[in-house]
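Hi there,

I know you've been waiting on this one. I reran it after we fixed the sequence typo, so this is the corrected version. Both the input and the resulting structure follow.
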Amino acid sequence: MFRADRNEKFLAALRLAGRAQQDAGGPDAFFAVAKREASQLYRRLKSRTSTAVLVNFANPLCRRPIRAGSSWVDRLFLHADNLTVERGTRTVISALSFTAKAGEALLLVGPNGAGKTTLIRTLAGFITPAAGTISLNAEFTDQDVAEACHYVGHLTGIKANLTAEQNLVFWAEYLGARESTPIEDRVHDALSHFGLSQLADYPAGLLSAGQKRRLGLARLSVAHRPIWLLDEPTVSLDAASTDLLAKLIRKHLANNGLVIAATHLPLGLEDPTYLRLGPAPSTGAAPGDTLSGGGAP
């Protein structure tokens, strides 16, 4: 499967990184991460490529590799305290507090405009809250919350001119440089899980909308992050593909991972916790709602 030279793939990954923020996070993603990460990315890459290539390696999006192993996630929880988020002159989220724990899925629900996407992007570090804090528990105070997160937004985060395999090789190289499992194995497993093995050498731009979505979700498998932030992950997925995503999420939770997802549809998970954003329902919470949050109408 891996026909290209690793150096060629790495250089392709460098070229892709300069444009990845546009697909996966937009300008908010770039400005939130670039200042913090630029110096570290430069040190990491300096020994692996030329200064000329480094000059072209603009717009860093992704966080530095997170260490794998159960010690990170055994007692992990994420806590938001009195979180207020504004977009322009509008307060989207007001004085919201909640805690999400390892091994549990927290599903964000509510009407359009309630702040689900805004909350996901704030947790990922792309939006700075107007007030309040987001933190991990005391054992992990030396870790940045964003470092522990996979973020999958509305866009797929893939490049049309690369093959399905090359897209995942980029994410595996860029996100998982410290992984012990070889890149070949991680990419192969991710393609296989989402039924994309037969399309490994196919240009991503020629895939269907559902196949592109599966490819974008497959990067969850190629690098370890204990926290998954998913914004409408089932968009463009058929029932079978949704089942594949649910299976991957259940595996992540079983390994003490944490999932926070904004969704209008069930994800096929057992006993998730719901965080309802938007106006409080007049007739009581929907079945399964155990938390509620403030948001704009």
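Quick highlight: The chain has two domains: 6-63+153-209, 77-143+226-292.

Best,
R. S.
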